[in-house]
Amino acid sequence: MRARKPTLVLALLLLILTALAGQTATAADRFIILQSTTSTENSGLYGYLLPLFRAKSGIEVRVVAVGTGQALRNARNGDGDVLIVHARAAEDAFVADGHGVTRHDLMANDFVIVGPADDPAGISGLTDTNSALRRLAGSAAPFVSRGDDSGTHKKERALWMAAGIAPAPDASWYREAGSGMGATLNIAIGMDAYTLVDRATWLSFGNRQDHRLLVEGDPALQNPYGVILVNPARHPGIRAVDGQTFIDWLLSPTGQAAIAAFRVNGKQLFFPARSQARAGE
Amino acid sequence: MSDALTTPARRALAPTKRPAGVLPVALEAVSYRADAATLLDQVSFRLRPGRLTTIMGPNGAGKTLCLRLIQGLLRPDDGQITYATAPISDAGRRRIATVFQRPVLLRRSVIGNLRHALRVYGIPRRDRPAMLAELLQLAGLSDVAHRSARVLSAGEQQRLSIVRALAAEPDLLLLDEPTANLDPYATRLIETLIGTAEARGATVVLVTHDVGQARRLADDVIFLNRGRVMEQAAASDFFDGPATDAAAAYLAGRLLL
Amino acid sequence: MGDAITEALHLIAFGDAALWEIVSLSLRVSLTAVALACMIGLPLGALLAIARFPGRGALVVGTNALMGLPPVLAGLLVYLLLSRAGPLGPLELLYTPTAMIIAQTVLVTPIVAALSRQVIEDLHQEYDEQLRSMGLRTGGAVMTLLYDARLSLLTVALAGFGRAAAEVGAVMMVGGNINHVTRVMTTTIALETSKGNLAMAVGLGLVLMLIALAVNGAVMALRPTKAVPRHV
User: Measured between CB atoms, does B102 come within 8 Å of chain C?
Assistant: First the structure.
């Protein structure tokens, strides 16, 4: 009689297995996969936008939030129907190579440089990124780079180049985290370091401690997001029709207004790309 | 429980309709070697149906090895073993059961061990409950049927091991020193059980060092020394007048050289 | 840490539908993966324990080494398999719970196989002659060994469950951490950490530990109490 019990456990496991099989079958109704950068997801933008879109279209948008670099690679493999990223040159290359149909300007926000409150490099209040970066390189204060080929990482490398500085990867003050934005922020805060971060992630980040926003406002810090439909001709199975419906809605006055209406702590984080929407409804 | 053992219960199930069986078993010039050592050297003997044969001899004579070869656990390097004039078959192997010197009991209850054996030996499902009850009674283990087999005393474990072998309804039952390390009472219970096995139609081969036990039980004696058969004789002849010096020395408790 | 404990208590006390969804998906994915891993790993472990064939030694070493398979690597391999650009792309399994189950099965199967091989091999050494004398061939012997080793094998399964429930790299890669679809305990913890919500992340971690504790407790409760030796 005792001996029966393990059999019972096995039966239980089998039951779970069958329950699961049923579950996955019913969940697969109408949906698209969105390969996205992390800042849009982590700031809560999708939590606000996607229910609005679903209510209107009946289409569920499943967000895979990774760095821009990985999002582009996944989309290249056909593992996504729509792409929202922020690395203009890489986006254009993606479309030029035939992996994407068209790139549309979706929205923008900007990058900021954050660092410890005592600001050992003395960059607080600068509005010129070049001189801020030169001061950073000149001081011994540590800087943490994403180091993960994300949109933010690409932007950061472009900024260093514009400032005429080539940080050696093994320089003691320049650290590559090889991580997402949030993890990189946690590291920078942990080691009293500076880092480049998009404003949306910074404002919605929960573990800022004594770190402050130090540099903002340079036009070079603009951070435009693009939206691209993955090319259905490359991979069968791309949900192009529903994907295009989503893109059309995002670019429509309704979608653009919804982006503008999204607030964190009363602050607008993303600015829609199309001016008629910016004028408001 | 001793009552149940001293008066062996008659079979609840009829021992009829047995297939032809594996007896007589004949070893013909069987040799077995391990590395350079010859452990059995040209051994020949016959096991006759209905006769209890004891295999005797000093340590290292090859007694246990003979049982393993007969059971088919090992293959001879030379010579052959025939079972009713044929080589061993799977069906034939199941007509033979071995009780090892140290009983290997499954990590189950007493009754769980017997159930397993009845299933493995292909006893029809409807016959199993009656056989279970009978075997438990034969072993005198009815009261501890649901206890873990591994917490039984040495004597109880050995009795369980024997009735488990009886679950095969074997033609040939091989017992390897079943009473080594048992007290006289436990030894008597085992000997009674051996009698029961014979009464149920099993031909028994018993390896033992206990000369008194051999005198009590044996019909035939095979005396081995250093991997050779020194004597094969009827028990009365062997014990009354061993033909070889080796056997005489063994029976007299002297060291064999 | 105080914040985290408060957060954990709050999560448990006021566990909302979202938390329950994540917890139940975690359990479903990991328990199913362990069940599948047992179906593959136990016979494989038994085979390695009992059968003697050329290459067995290499296979034993290989299985033991695969116990250390990095979850991210397992995730990457399954991703390459299930991607639309991969051989199984047409099945459309990427970013589904099924993909996560496959990845965790890949992770757990070597653990089940390697540990069960050891357990069964030890028991086999003890039982071998007895079972062969009863005329049992390999198949029947395996059934007997699996049954008699069942309690140890249950512990093996628990070790596998621990590995599955605790890993994040593989499910993140092939599940995508999609809200309401493939978000499990560990990927939620990673997400909350990346949002800087450290108290929430630790709170979820404590909930995960409690679940592991509950699963282990439930399985242990199903085991018979250890037989007390009673000699007569």
Answer: no
CA distances, A205 to each of A180, A182, A185, A197, C200 (Å): 13, 8, 9, 11, 13
- Of chain A residues 5-34, which have a CB less than 8 A from chain C? 5-6, 8-10, 13-14, 16-17, 19-20, 23-24, 27-28, 33
Task: Among C124, C133, C138, pick the best mutation site for testing chain B contact (most B Cβ within 10 A).
Answer: C133
CB contact under 8 A, A206 and C177: no
Q: Which of C129, C134, C231 sits opposite B151 (nearest CB)?
A: C231
Distance, CA of A115 to CA of A208 (rounded, Å): 10
Query: Percent of chain C, pLDDT > 70?
Result: 94
pLDDT score for B12: 43
Element (H, E) at B29: strand B25-34
Q: Is the pLDDT of residue C151 over 70?
A: yes
Alpha-carbon torsion (B229, B233, B235, B236), positive or negative: negative
| This prediction's pTM | 0.81
C86-110: burial string, b at 16+ Cβ within 10 Å, e else: bebbeeebbbbbbbbbbbbbbbbbb
Residue in chain C nearest B164 by alpha carbon: C134
Looking at every residue in chain C, the average pLDDT score rounds to 88
- Backbone CA torsion sign across A269, A273, A279, A280: negative
Cα Rg of chain B (Å, integer): 18
pLDDT, residue C67, reads 93
CA C147 – CA A172 distance, rounded (Å): 59
DSSP letter (8 states) at residue B25? E
- Give the residue numbers spanning the domain of C152: 2-220
User: How does pLDDT run across B217-236, given as a tens digit for each residue?
Assistant: 999 999 999 899 999 999 98
**Tokens found for residue C138:** 């390999």
Number of structural domains (chain C) is 1
Token pair, residue B138, equals 């034969």
Sort out which chain B residues have CB atoms less than 8 A from C126's CB and list them: 104
pLDDT in tens, B18-64: 445 788 899 999 999 988 888 999 999 999 899 999 999 988 889 99
Mean pLDDT, contiguous 10-residue spans, chain B (257 residues): 42 45 88 89 91 91 92 91 83 88 92 95 93 94 93 94 94 93 91 93 92 92 92 91 88 75
What residues does each domain of chain A span?
30-109+224-278, 110-221
Q: What per-residue confidence (pLDDT) applies to C201?
A: 86
Residues of chain A with pLDDT under 70: 1-28, 169, 275-281
The whole-angstrom separation of Cα C79 and Cα B51 is: 71
Tokens of A243: 């994907």
A116 CB-near residues (< 8 Å, 6+ apart): A141, A192, A193, A194, A210, A211, A212
What residues contact residue A187 under an 8 Å CB cut-off, 6+ apart? A144, A175, A177, A179, A193
Name the nearest CA neighbour of C30 among C106, C123, C104, C140: C104
Q: What ipTM is given for this predicted complex?
A: 0.84
Task: Tell me the HSE value of A226 on the side-chain side, using a 13 A CA sphere.
Answer: 22
Residue C108 included in any domain:
yes
d(CA C42, CA C36): 10
Per-residue pLDDT tens over the stretch A17-39: 555 554 554 444 799 999 999 88
- CATH number reported for the structural domain that contains residue C56 in this entry: 1.10.3720.10
Beta partners for A230?
A100
Asked if the structure places residue C232 within a domain, the reply is no
Residues with Cβ < 8 Å from C82, sequence gap 6 or more? C88, C89, C91, C93, C94, C99, C102, C174
CATH C-level class of A110-221: alpha beta
How far is A219 from C61, CA to CA, in rounded Å? 59
User: Is residue C101 situated within a structural domain?
Assistant: yes
Cα–Cα distances in angstroms (integers) from residue C45 to residues A9, B69, C60, C146, in the given order: 20, 30, 9, 10
Q: Which CATH class is domain A30-109+224-278?
A: alpha beta
